[in-house]
C-alpha cells in the first residue's frame, strides 16, 4: 500500500484539504461529518506510522516540538477549564498524528504536488462560488451548517463576519472583498498566498506546463487582491524579501560573498523596519487598517491582562478558544460576534501556556526557521565534495514558514489546523534532512 501512488496521493490530498479547507467542509457538510472524516484520516495516518516504525522514532522528533506537546498535555492538571483543555488536546493530537505521517511518509515533491491540487481546488471553487452568489443568488449567504454556540436568530441583522459569502464579488473595486468557500477573506487570502508560493515553485521546477502554471499564478494573485487582507499583504512582502535574500545567498560563490549578502540584507531590512515604524500611520492607511489594527489592540490588551494573572504556565492549553468555557464565553466580541482566538499566536501561547510555553514555542519556530533556511540556501551534495544543483523545491519549507510566521502576529493560526500542521511538517522533515 505504501508503494501505491494513487493511495499516497489520495491520502496526502485529503489530509491537506481537511487542514487547509476545514471551514469549507464544516460549512457544507457539518461538524459531525468533519469529525468523522478527520478521525478516519487520523487512524489511517497512525497505521501508516506503524507500518513505517523502522523509519522514524519519537526520539528523532525535534526536541522543542516534543517539549511543547508535553507541556500542552500536562497543562490539563492546572487548567482553568480542564474540559476545554481535554477537547483542545484531542484536536491538537489529531493534527500532530496527521502532520507527522505527512512528514515521514511523503517527499517534498509529493507534498508539493498534493498542496498544488488542494490549493487549485480551493481557489477555483471559491471564485466560482462567489460568482454564483453574485450572479444567481444576488444576496448574502449563510453557511449550511453554522458555527457552534452562535444563535443566529438573536441578531436583527446577521453580522457579515458570520456570513459564508457577503455577495461582494462585483464590489471588489470598492469596499467589497471575497471570502470564498472558507467564509473568511483573511483565510482565503492566506491560502492564495500559499498557492502563489506552491505554483511558483512548481513552475520553476517545471513540474507543470508553463501556460497552466502561469494561469494559476494569475488566479492566485487575483484572489489575494480581491480578499484585501492587510496581513496577507505583509506576509507576501515578507516572503518576497526572504526569497530575494535566499536567491542572492545561493548565488554567492564564496563565504565572503555570503557574509556581504547577509550584512547588506540585514542593514536594508533594519532601515525598512525603522522607516515603516516612523510612517506607521501612513502604512496603516495604505493597508486599509485603523490605528487600532481593526480592533486587535483591544483584544491583545485583554489577553495580556489574563496572561499576567498566570504568568508562568498559563491558563491551560485549548488551541482554538472554546465558546462555552470561562473566560472565553464573554471575553472578546467584535461587531457582535464572539472571537475564538487572540489574533496573535505569541500572545495566545503566553496566555495558554505562560512564559515557559512561549519560550518553548519560540524555540520550536526558531529551530524550524533555521533548518528551513539551511535547507533552502545550502547546496545539496551527492557525496562529500560533489555538490548538486540547487532545486526550486528546497525553497518550499522556508517560504511557507515565513508566510506563517508573518501571519502569526495578526492571527493565531500557527497553533491551529493548517498552521500547526505545516509547522510540524517543516520542523520534522528539515530535521530529517530530506532534500526533495
Automatic annotation (TrEMBL):
<feature type="domain" description="O-antigen ligase-related">
    <location>
        <begin position="217"/>
        <end position="362"/>
    </location>
</feature>
<keyword id="KW-0436">Ligase</keyword>
<protein>
    <submittedName>
        <fullName>O-antigen ligase family protein</fullName>
    </submittedName>
</protein>
<keyword id="KW-0812">Transmembrane</keyword>
<dbReference type="Pfam" id="PF04932">
    <property type="entry name" value="Wzy_C"/>
</dbReference>
<dbReference type="GO" id="GO:0016020">
    <property type="term" value="C:membrane"/>
</dbReference>
<dbReference type="InterPro" id="IPR051533">
    <property type="entry name" value="WaaL-like"/>
</dbReference>
<keyword id="KW-1133">Transmembrane helix</keyword>
<dbReference type="GO" id="GO:0016874">
    <property type="term" value="F:ligase activity"/>
</dbReference>
<dbReference type="InterPro" id="IPR007016">
    <property type="entry name" value="O-antigen_ligase-rel_domated"/>
</dbReference>
<keyword id="KW-0472">Membrane</keyword>
Amino acid at each position: 500500500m505504501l508503494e501505491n501512488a494513487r493511495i499516497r496521493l489520495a491520502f496526502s490530498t485529503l489530509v491537506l484539504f481537511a487542514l487547509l479547507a476545514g471551514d469549507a467542509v464544516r460549512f457544507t457538510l457539518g461538524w459531525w461529518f468533519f469529525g468523522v472524516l478527520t478521525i478516519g484520516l487520523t487512524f489511517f495516518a497512525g497505521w501508516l506510522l506503524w507500518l513505517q516504525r523502522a523509519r522514524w522514532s519519537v526520539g528523532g522528533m525535534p526536541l522543542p516540538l516534543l517539549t511543547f506537546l508535553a507541556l500542552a498535555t500536562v497543562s490539563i492538571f492546572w487548567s482553568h477549564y480542564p474540559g476545554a483543555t481535554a477537547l483542545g488536546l484531542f484536536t491538537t493530537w489529531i493534527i500532530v498524528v496527521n502532520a507527522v505521517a505527512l512528514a515521514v511518509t511523503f517527499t517534498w515533491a509529493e507534498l508539493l504536488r498534493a498542496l498544488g491540487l488542494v490549493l487549485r481546488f480551493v481557489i477555483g471553487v471559491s471564485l466560482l462560488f462567489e460568482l454564483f452568489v453574485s450572479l444567481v443568488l444576488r444576496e448574502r449567504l449563510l453557511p449550511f451548517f453554522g458555527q457552534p454556540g452562535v444563535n443566529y436568530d438573536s441578531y436583527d441583522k446577521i453580522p457579515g463576519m458570520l456570513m459564508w459569502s457577503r455577495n461582494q464579488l462585483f464590489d471588489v473595486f470598492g469596499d467589497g472583498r471575497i471570502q470564498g468557500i472558507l467564509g473568511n477573506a483573511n483565510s482565503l487570502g492566506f491560502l492564495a498566498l500559499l498557492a502563489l508560493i506552491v505554483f511558483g515553485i512548481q513552475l520553476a521546477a517545471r513540474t507543470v506546463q508553463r501556460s497552466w502554471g502561469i494561469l494559476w499564478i494569475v488566479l492566485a494573485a487575483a484572489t489575494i487582491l480581491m480578499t484585501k487582507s492587510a496581513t496577507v499583504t505583509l506576509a507576501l512582502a515578507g516572503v518576497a524579501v526572504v526569497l530575494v535574500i535566499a536567491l542572492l545567498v545561493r548565488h554567492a560563490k564564496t563565504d565572503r560573498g555570503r557574509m556581504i549578502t547577509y550584512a547588506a540584507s540585514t542593514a536594508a531590512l533594519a532601515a525598512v523596519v525603522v522607516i515603516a515604524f516612523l510612517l506607521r500611520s501612513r502604512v496603516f492607511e495604505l493597508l486599509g487598517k485603523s490605528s487600532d489594527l481593526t480592533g486587535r489592540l483591544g483584544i491583545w490588551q485583554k489577553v495580556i491582562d489574563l496572561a499576567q494573572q498566570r504568568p508562568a504556565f498559563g491558563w491551560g492549553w485549548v488551541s482554538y478558544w472554546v465558546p462555552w468555557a470561562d473566560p472565553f464565553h464573554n471575553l472578546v466580541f467584535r461587531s457582535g460576534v464572539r472571537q475564538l482566538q487572540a489574533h496573535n499566536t505569541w500572545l495566545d501561547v503566553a496566555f495558554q501556556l505562560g512564559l515557559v510555553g512561549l519560550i518553548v514555542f519560540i524555540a520550536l519556530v526558531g529551530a524550524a526557521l533555521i533548518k528551513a533556511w539551511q535547507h533552502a540556501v545550502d547546496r545539496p551534495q551527492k557525496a562529500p565534495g560533489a555538490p548538486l544543483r540547487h532545486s526550486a523545491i528546497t525553497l518550499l519549507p522556508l517560504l511557507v514558514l515565513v508566510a506563517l510566521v508573518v501571519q502569526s502576529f495578526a492571527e493565531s493560526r500557527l497553533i491551529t489546523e493548517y498552521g500547526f500542521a505545516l509547522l510540524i511538517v517543516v520542523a520534522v522533515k528539515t530535521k530529517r534532512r530530506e532534500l526533495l
